Amino acid sequence: MDLNKQRGSRIESLRASKGISQLELAKMLGYKSDSTISKWESGASIPTGTKIVKLAQVLGTTTDYILFGDNSENNDGQQIISDDIDDIIENAMMFDGKPLTDDDKRAIRGIIAGYMSSKEK
User: Fold this and answer.
1) Which residues lie below 8 Å from residue 103, measured CB to CB, with a gap of 6+?
2) What SS3 class is residue 56?
3) Contact 59, 41 (CB under 8 A)
């Protein structure tokens, strides 16, 4: 299967797993019809620039997964967000002027993961 068809297949699979029609996805991305989404899913073209970033956000994945099929998703088609959470926590080294302890970081990781999991349902 050629690379653009693989990308299209990933887009279609992600969209279907979210229960979103091509037209609904098109409207979320600012298109008036589903023809662009259809072209992406068939591999006739691929999203670029800000559209692929927005597409990844809407579908709950990364641009790398759409473009290259990296393993940023688990077997259920849900994005593994732990790496992103770790990045957020590492960037938040202080709270209220006090450094975060390892226990604080574990607690924050659990809170964020629980919140994000509850949003998917």
Assistant:
1) none
2) helix
3) no
Which of these, 15, 25, 17, 7, lies nearest to 70 by C-alpha position? Answer: 7
Residue ranges in the chain modelled with pLDDT below 50: 72-81, 121
Please, how many CA atoms are within 13 Å of residue 75, restricted to the half-sphere of its CB?
0
Q: What's at 42, amino acid-wise? A: S
Give the span between the Cα atoms of 83 and 106, in whole angstroms. Answer: 13
Pair of tokens at residue 97: 């002027």
Tens-place pLDDT, residues 78-93: 444 455 666 666 666 6
- CATH of the domain spanning 3-68: 1.10.260.40
C-beta of residue 43 within 8 angstroms of C-beta of residue 2? yes
Predicted TM-score of the model (pTM)? 0.58
- 3-class DSSP state of 75: coil
Q: How far is CA 72 from CA 15, 39, 94, 117, in A?
A: 16, 24, 28, 16
Query: What is the domain partition of the chain in residue ranges?
Result: 3-68, 82-119
